[in-house]
Amino acid sequence: MRQKKSPEDLKLRKALENMRYKSCTKEDIIFLRSRVASDRTGHPHLDSVVFRDVSVITAWNVHKDTINQLGAERFATDTGQELVEFFSVDRLSPKSLEPTGRWKNLDQAHLKRISPTLQNQLWKAAPSTTSEHVAGCLKLCVGMPVMIKANEATELCITKGQEAIVRGWNEVIAPHGKRVLETLFVELIKPPRPVQIADLPLNVVPLPRSTTTMTTLLRDDSVLSIARDQVLVLPNFSMTDYGAQGKSRSCNVVHLNNCKNHMGYYVCLSRGTEAATTAIIQGFEEKVITGGLSGHMRQEFRELEMLDEITRLKEANELPPSVTGIYRGQLLSSFRKWRKGEPDPTHFHPAIRYNTRLDKGFQFQTEYDTWKATRIEDGDTIGKKRKKSGSANKPSKKTKLGTAPYDMEVEPKQLTINNPKPPGSFNGCNEMPVGLVWDSVNWSCSYDSIFTPLGHLWRHDRETWGPILTRLHPLWSVWCEFMASDGDQPEIARNNVRRLLTWADPIKFPLGPTRVALDNLLNAVANPDAAGKAIVYCEQCNHREPGEIEIISMLLVAYRITALDRECGGRVTLSQWIMRHLDGVIRQRCSNCNFNRTRRRTVTFKVPPVLIISVQMYGELLLDGELTFLANGTEETLRLAGITYFSPQAQHFTSITATPDGSLWYHDGITTRRRCNLVGNINTINKEELQKRGDYIVGCAIYVKKLV
User: Fold this and answer.
1) How far is CA 686 from CA 566, 624, 679, 702, in A?
2) How far is it, in rounded angstroms, from Cα 228 to Cα 135?
3) Helices of type H across 473-573
4) What's the confidence (pLDDT) of residue 546?
5) 147 and 185 share one domain
6) Where is the sequence biased in composition, kind Basic residues (predicted)?
7) CB neighbours of 495 closer than 8 A, spacing ≥ 6?
8) Which residues of the chain have pLDDT under 70?
């Protein structure tokens, strides 16, 4: 923390320390309320000279753009100047970019040229309507504060986020008849080191116009890929909390209303170096910074403090040789054994100290020779239910699916990894998936059969598949969050997702020794948004029956097509079924022309990143290793990622996980537990072997996009 030592600064330091752990006290709230901008005595006044031209930290880019626009107009008026408009040079990108982020599910606009009307709209649009936040029209004047938005030359301190002041520019008239910047000269504010360029004053650097390929949002909610030529700067009268990270500000003005959580509040307020020059606009929500951390975050902070304590004792030669370990769990386990239940050090924040009611005492026990890792909760054993206390296990009255409290099940039952070999050395394959241990109290096999294949995707490429799974459904967002905090205990993520489903519908998702129907689970975790639609029309008169439009999602239910069975002699593959399903014929008489001809079913389909095909109604369907779709004139390939099997006799689910190299790994939460057994390769195994394993039949198949 960068605050000084005045009484007010000490109050700000204390409030920030408590805010970090979401545990602000009444005294902290009273102090923070005193920093809300107002005309009352003792409160900061935004019309003060101290806060003039100070960049406001806010959460949303749309608010940042509006504040920048108003700030630029006010700055020009105050300095007696006129704003000069510099327009970009836009052209269609030769390659369409895939929309990402909040525009992921929007349609791509395909245009042959940018019309004058559209060009004017692109110039008027705010920078936040583009994926790279590049302004279509820059309004500048000499002396205006700006922020550099790209790493142009790191050796010259021209980096993204660097603040500067406009000192001059070179301009030309473009073919569209507007003024266009060639070079913008800016003076860097407090660069890491002095920058001297020949024939320029100290810390004055040139910023040339550059080309940025990006997507932009149009008025009809479609996105367009364009290449924009513009100097990569923006007015600096506002910045987002994301862009403010790492900055120290002598005057700190913040807008907290739309910050997502207490961490956003902390980032904004901790940028300031003095309480007297800190101002909060429009107040804040107390509940965001009070109430305490969720279980997994509290445990993470405590473990980090313990690691710091281990480092301090090691440096002081006060740590015995018994405290050692290759991995964090091993090191913390040996440290706790050495301390023998002693209370946490007093310098630990009260919000993260050991709490009997909340934590039940974590212990780590690791045996290196058998690669076993056990996390035991005091008083709990396998198959023993946790005692209920008060309302701790009851959902809140207004709990919505995907938004329930995250402090659900941080401590699992006793779980064991039984891998005779270290992960990564099994039969020469270095991608052995990690399975989930079956819960014998609340049967979990249907969940295990889904989360094991998708969990391997997340482990194999977390940076790519984490955001993809998060966007699919709120439940996957919860699952990814718990996997990120407790990846070595995937049962925690599974159990908390299961609790959300049980709270939402206890009939379909019961607890106890009963199985959850696979169809119910697939419908719950699949994104209901449309991936396509099917339309049936007459081949003779093109008549379409009212209401005969089918919405297609990422979950397909395979049903038997008798004609296809006859054509293929009973050996129908999944790719053949999908081809017929997406564009097939229906032999019915048309109600419009009464002509006894076939009606055709055509589908407009946008291939989702994850496609689940339920084949319980068509168990004889042969699975393919890859599925290829023709979308927008290009081929998109999905590979097999997992298969779920079900035994009607045993009332039990198992699964096979297919890794990117084609290896097939069998998992049964009862017998193999965390281990997965290599059973073959998708390129060499017979399709009949995948169709049935003993008395287990295929329940569903999971296909994912080949992203590399």
Assistant:
1) 22, 10, 12, 18
2) 9
3) 474-485, 490-504, 518-525, 562-568
4) 56
5) yes
6) 384-400
7) 408, 409, 412, 439, 444
8) 1-4, 355-431, 486-488, 529-532, 534, 537, 539-540, 542-551, 583-592, 594-603, 619, 631-633, 707-708
Which of these three, 236, 267, 283, is where a domain ends? 236
Instruction: Count how many domains the chain has.
Output: 2
3-state secondary structure of 677: strand
Contact 554, 527 (CB under 8 A): yes
What pLDDT is attached to residue 627?
Answer: 87
Beta pairing class for 599-605 and 532-538? antiparallel
**Residues 226 and 88 reside in one and the same domain:** yes
258-265 contact pairs (CB < 8 A, 24+): 258/58, 258/59, 258/60, 258/63, 259/59, 259/288, 260/59, 261/288, 262/19, 262/20, 262/22, 262/288, 262/289, 264/59, 265/19, 265/289
- The answer to whether the beta carbons of residues 669 and 448 sit under 8 Å apart is yes
pLDDT of residue 548: 56
Is 340 contained in some domain? no
Please say whether the dihedral angle defined by the alpha carbons of residues 374, 380, 384 and 385, taken in this order, is positive or negative. negative
Residues with Cβ < 8 Å from 376, sequence gap 6 or more? 363, 365, 414
Quick check: helix, strand or coil at residue 205? strand
User: Which amino acid would we find at residue 198?
Assistant: A
Let me know the angle formed at the C-alpha of 631 by 627 and 636, rounded to the nearest 5 degrees.
40
Quick: pLDDT tens for 588-603: 666 667 655 566 666 6
Do the beta carbons of residue 59 and residue 66 sit within 8 Å? no
Mean per-residue pLDDT over the chain, rounded: 80
Residue found under tokens 């923070």: 32
How far separated are the first and last CA of the chain, in Å rounded?
Answer: 42
Specify the pLDDT at position 239: 95
Q: Is residue 534 domain-resident?
A: no
Instruction: Looking at the structure, tell me whether residues 4 and 110 fall in a common domain.
Output: no
pLDDT tens digits for 549-561? 666 778 888 887 7
122 and 226 both lie in a single domain: yes
Q: Supply the pLDDT for residue 601.
A: 65
Domain that holds residue 44: 1-59+241-292
pLDDT of residue 59: 93
Task: Indicate whether 206 and 93 sit together in one domain.
Answer: yes
State the pLDDT at residue 252. Answer: 93
Same-domain pairing of 38 and 125: no
Q: Give the CA diameter of the chain.
A: 93
- Pinpoint the alpha helices (H) of 270-408: 295-315, 328-339, 356-359
- Whether the Cβ atoms of residue 87 and residue 209 lie closer than 8 Å to each other: no
Q: What is the pTM of this model?
A: 0.53
Within a domain: 593: no
The pair of three-digit structure tokens given for residue 449, joined into one six-digit string? 């059969």
Rounded to whole angstroms, the Cα distance separating 185 from 170 reads 8
Between CA 602 and CA 530 the distance in angstroms is: 15
Question: What's the rounded Cα separation, in Å, for the pair 178 and 89?
Answer: 9
Three-state DSSP class for 630? strand
Neighbouring residues of 4: CB distance < 8 A, sequence distance ≥ 6: 273, 274
